[in-house]
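dumping this here before i forget
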Amino acid sequence: MKFPNIYEIATTSVVSIDINSTFAQAMEKMLANNHRNIVIVDINDFYILSIIDILNIQANSIDFNTPLRDLQLLKIPIIKKDKNILETLEYLNNSIEYICVVNDDHSLYGLVTHTDITTNIDPDTLMENYRLQDFLKLGRRMKWVRRDEKISTLIKDMIDNSYDNVVVVEDLKPIGIFTTKDIMRLMKNKTNLDVEIQEHMTTPVESVHKNASIKEALEFIKERHYKRVIVVDDNGSLSGIISQKELISLTYSKWSTLMKEYQAELHEINLMLQNKNIEYENIASTDSLTGLYNRHKFSQLYLSAYTSMVQRHNDMSLILLDIDHFKKVNDDFGHNVGDKALVQVSHALLKNLRNIDIVCRWGGEEFLILLPTVDLEHAMHIAQKIRQAIEILDIDIIGNATASFGIAQVIEGEEMKEVINRADKALYLAKDCGRNCVKSEIDI
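structure:
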């Protein structure tokens, strides 16, 4: 069993357009290529404009000359083309149907959809002994209507409830189906939509018996290039609908039970999980805004640095700094501007410190710096250097900002909170002295 790479299964015949184009241009290009969606390209981000989006935009009477960047479009996740198909699984657990595939230079390579994944599944690995009727509860979100339902009314319901298809039923039996593909065709031909669905539904309906296996259902979808399976009982009455996404989910469940038989693949997955664990550990250790260490990680690193200080009989100092009048920045310019200021200050800290120094966003506009092998006098010089670097920063919108500093030297035998408490007192003294200055514990 082989798990293919993304570039092997991605659809490369993708229609795309720049985000600075207008909605009218996107729709024209979409209809000309007979596609139900179009990829919107915005430098490093990608969005999708679907036929349902077009209907929603028309229903809200939005100007067709509106730039695409001004529309609320769905941002789609990105994956590099050399990644393994297994790395798409997390996206299949939610409502996202598309994953954007990019080259190494981040240019658009193609799209991976549920259809692409389904088409590349080996039926020999599927659940031949499980029947569709065992999983019909998966397709509980189903819309069915009578043949005299008006298309104009139906489309509104499809938009409101995010249905991509409806089944037309008569005497409990499916006699037709109407999908977004049909809507695309009607829009392209500028067809009057205030007519009964029976005039434009796809008929007859191809269905699968509820006793069919998952393997048979997937083969049915692959052969006909369908996005769903309509399931009927012995009498031909509608039992339910199962989407290809749900079938994919069942398929991967089967694959997971076969993992033990394929050691090479299992090793590959273990490596992937290890990398994921490292990624998650980094996320748990850092402040999401600045990328600096958070309180929890700082406390861990402090203990390690303290042990080294004791063993080697070195000095160690701690700097606590606070951006001056930061509340006023948030009040005057908003929190988004304030966040940008915090990020710029963080960069200034890292630029003026050594690799062995430990920097943490302690909370709000407060930062904590641990300086291994540095005594109090040397820490004062470092703090002054940082203070000057912040003072000359040209911060977006705000302009210039200043910071106040409190310094304490770590003493063997005391807890971290005691050192921080002394640095905090020195910081408050710096504020009382007019801010934008450095004070140490000896000044208290």
